[in-house]
């Protein structure tokens, strides 16, 4: 596997992991009725997802331009990790809305 591909893959994993962590921190803050902090953490989660999405878009653009990307288990894992983080962040927003309504 080329170093460039490995860097891209690790970037997806890191940004996806950061997003999921920020989303979890947002839920914990909302549980404690610290809604301003929860909102900040969701913003950070979304920023991490945007970074990951840019990386993913670069891969897709290269593929569409005829540059074949090696598909490895690590690449599949990075995509799975990113998609899970997106879903988790969406769910975190819903949970925060519920906590706000209860409060």
UniProtKB/TrEMBL annotation:
<keyword id="KW-0762">Sugar transport</keyword>
<feature type="active site" description="Tele-phosphohistidine intermediate">
    <location>
        <position position="77"/>
    </location>
</feature>
<keyword id="KW-0808">Transferase</keyword>
<dbReference type="GO" id="GO:0016740">
    <property type="term" value="F:transferase activity"/>
</dbReference>
<dbReference type="Pfam" id="PF02255">
    <property type="entry name" value="PTS_IIA"/>
</dbReference>
<dbReference type="GO" id="GO:0009401">
    <property type="term" value="P:phosphoenolpyruvate-dependent sugar phosphotransferase system"/>
</dbReference>
<dbReference type="InterPro" id="IPR036542">
    <property type="entry name" value="PTS_IIA_lac/cel_sf"/>
</dbReference>
<keyword id="KW-0479">Metal-binding</keyword>
<feature type="binding site">
    <location>
        <position position="80"/>
    </location>
    <ligand>
        <name>Mg(2+)</name>
    </ligand>
</feature>
<keyword id="KW-0813">Transport</keyword>
<dbReference type="InterPro" id="IPR003188">
    <property type="entry name" value="PTS_IIA_lac/cel"/>
</dbReference>
<keyword id="KW-0460">Magnesium</keyword>
<dbReference type="GO" id="GO:0046872">
    <property type="term" value="F:metal ion binding"/>
</dbReference>
<feature type="modified residue" description="Phosphohistidine; by HPr">
    <location>
        <position position="77"/>
    </location>
</feature>
<protein>
    <submittedName>
        <fullName>PTS system lactose/cellobiose-specific IIA component</fullName>
    </submittedName>
</protein>
<keyword id="KW-0598">Phosphotransferase system</keyword>
